[in-house]
Amino acid sequence: MQRNKKSDQYPEEPPPLPEYDISPELRKLVLMFIGTVILNFLVAGSLAMGMRTLQADVPLMPVDSIPRNVLFYALLTAHGQVMFFGVASMATMYFGYYATSKWGRKPLSGMKWAKASFWIMEAAVVLIFLSCLFAFGAGWYNLMPLTFLPGTPEVAWGALPAAVFLIADVLVGVALTIFCLVIIVTLLRGKLPTGTQRLEKFYEEEEGERQQHEQGFKEYTDHTKIEDLPAGVRWAALLGISSWFTKKWRFYSPAVPIILVAAFVTAVVQLVGNPGLFLQLANGFIAIQNPIAASNWLLTKDAWWFFAHPIVYFPLLIFLGGSYAFLPRYGKAPISYSKWNYRPWPFYFTFSMLVFAHHMFMDMPNPVWLQMVSQTASLGIIFPSGLTIATALIFLWKSNVSWNITSRFFLAGIAGWAFGGFIGAPMGMWGTNIYLHNTMALPGHIHLIVLLGPVLMSFGVIYAIFPDLTKKHLSKTLGEIHFWMTLFGGYGFAILFTIIGSEGAIRREANMPATYDWAMPWLLFFALTIGISQFFFVYNFVKTLRRKPTPEDEAEYEKMHQAPRRDSEAGSAAA
Amino acid sequence: MMAILSSLTSFVNLAADYGWGPYTILWIFIAVVTISTAVFLIVMASSRSKKKMTFAAKRKYHIEMYWCIAVAGILIWLWVISYPWMPPVAFSEASVPNTASAAAQGKIQTVNITAGQWFWIMDLTNNNKPVKAGGESPHAVVEAGKPVKFIAHSLDVNHGFGVFANATDSQILLQMQVVPGVDNVFYYTFKEPGNYMVRCLEYCGYAHPYMTSVIKVIPENQEGGKA
């Protein structure tokens, strides 16, 4: 692909989005979300840098002392919560709102609620930072009753920071619930773009000649029709269930764009999971008066993971849906999709709600049936994941896709998620999890799954939708630096985490045993690489936001909003 | 076919074997990541191929269907072969043959563990006769080759009872969570005599890294508690 050096863009880059114009209000909200996500990412990343600096025993930092440990665990707690809620979840929210309106081709139901969810979530993030300043360090998953029993209160946190932290988590739950409801209501009300099943003569281009395929016909669908769907059909379409119908019934079932299926599944799964958070918090507020009271801490822990495992899939699913929207746009021709692209989604819907209990494999009092369900679901989630990866690779094979920043971020995100799954699989089985549970392999898994999965894809989305939001393009040169440095640093420390974890290095150790001293400077180096790369991104973002649109920007924007590109942003359940 | 299945089963059983399981998992992980990286790069390179392949042409081979069947088959196989390693099977009463008679004959060693911020107290009772008085020493002494029943309680927060493969930080041999308010029971049979490091594996406050102890395993039929 030829690069236009003058404008630092790819002028021939295909228009990335359907023709529907989101409202200026939503455009502004999405930009606010993106700016805030970047800010949160920088601050939470700095906290991680502090942690790695402490572990690497850099001379400037206090060595092996109680205040050092208190500081380490406060940083660890705020880093984890802000990365999950202030970065991954807020990225999901901005893209969820944007995609639902853009590909649903209608305004959001409850724009005011969408705005409220932004402010509530950011307030929660501020409170989490505040609790960090008061040395609150019960860990990001806040395993009660540690929240109220820090050990020696005079050097650790007191009741006030604990209460602030719990209030922050209440706000997180409220914001997530609002988001889920806005998405669900938007998709369940009114019309949706649907595919019209058609039969058409099937041709292949070979050596410049147009030849009829031996099978004669193919089925395909576009999403140019907008129609109201009966409730049953709508649910079957939005959960991807209709893709498992027989061929005859698939022929009569309209297919909605996959990205809408992803948004809907994400919202419903998280809405089901949110009560787990509220149950955990309710138990915490009751126990704040008397920590040793007869609270059921096993149930509290189970409730938390019922919420917290879906929160890992929360960013993942929506951005996987995004890959079905963006990757085909960078192909040189419209590309049909098949029922196989829809078929994973009912499994994501089911298993991402059941998979949570593998976090409690080592809790021996848990009932055996729960352990068996969770092992089944943990292995079961591999099935749709494997299918999604396979369909993505089949789609990309000899597809002539342009490897621009967005498509590369998406491919890197899919790869990171796959690699995270490879180490996640043994954690989902009892026999092997016994060696990996609570070791550094777990942060390795999480960083591969989240940082190198949806967070990378989120960057790709920002590069793609920025022109739609601002009528301006981000600089490609700075984008390249951002991409390669993030990839290098991210894979560096995630793989290193996994290796030392498999060797037995325990996670959440303020003082790593001497056996792993060799790894600490490397972890700091990789973390710094990621951190520095984000400054290139921020500079690019702010600089572009402040500059005026060039004529090329404007021409590109106009082109983007012209004729719809049939069949390229969504697929067919019938093919 | 049976030979292939058998060798694959042995391979995964190695991953779940005591002692060197984690390294096997690591090598499997590295191998799979290397192979898949190559696949991703090949797919990326193929997209630059001059001979473009239409999606419909790819559909002719029904790759997705075969892939689905293969993945589902592997998962079912993993589930079945991992069953013997599930803690309620491998590390519970069910893992000790003839539990009741074994207990009556004194073949099961019981270690009561008390976990607190930030200490371990391990009291060994053998056939209801205390060998080491509670609080006398945080260390426990058990015999190799005889099942050990660990019963753990927490005085305060969640802890993780983790035993390492030798006296220093190394591979994890076994672990269970110590959840407050409930009995946490785990069976294990040490194969080799030696000192085994105990560490807390669940974050429990700022002094969590220092919550350590030792289990001393002596040869079978040697009087426990005298070491």
* Mean of residue pLDDT values of chain A: 83
Percent helix of chain A, as a range, is 55-70%
Determine the most extensive contact between two protein chains.
A-B, 98 and 86 residues
* Uncertain residue ranges of chain B: 14-20, 127-137
Q: Number of helical runs of chain B?
A: 6
What letter string, H or E per element, gives the SSE order of chain A? HHHHEEEEHHHHHHHHHHHHHH
Total number of β-strand segments of chain A?
A: 4
Residue runs with pLDDT of under 50 for 5 or more positions of chain A? 1-16, 196-204, 210-221, 563-575
How many helical stretches of chain A?
A: 18
Structural class based on helices, strands and sheet pairing of chain B = alpha+beta
Q: Strand percentage of chain A, roughly?
A: under 5%
Largest sheet of chain A: 2 strands, antiparallel
Number of strands of chain B: 10
Distance between the termini of chain B: 52 Å
Shape of chain A: globular
Question: Mind describing the biggest β-sheet of chain B?
Answer: 5 strands, mixed
Gyration radius of chain B, rounded: 24 Å
Overall outline of chain B: elongated
**Computed Rg of chain A:** 24 Å
**Mean of residue pLDDT values of chain B:** 77
Describe this structure in a few short sentences:
Chain A is built from 18 helices and four strands.
Could you explain the architecture of this structure?
- The complex is a heterodimer of chains A (575) and B (227).
- Chain A is mainly α and 575 residues long.
- In chain A, 64% of the residues lie in helices and 5% in strands.
- Chain A is built from 18 helices and 4 strands.
- Chain A has helices at 24-55, 66-104, 111-133, 159-188, 231-238, 247-252, 258-287, 297-326, 339-342, 344-354, 368-380, 382-396, 405-427, 430-436, 441-470, 476-502, 519-546, 551-560, and strands at 192-194, 198-206, 209-220, 225-227.
- In chain A, α8 (297-326) packs across α15 (441-470).
- The longest helix of chain A has 39 residues, at 66-104.
- Chain A is globular, with a radius of gyration of 24 Å.
- Chain B has 227 residues and is an alpha+beta fold.
- Chain B starts with a helix and ends in a 9-residue tail after the last strand.
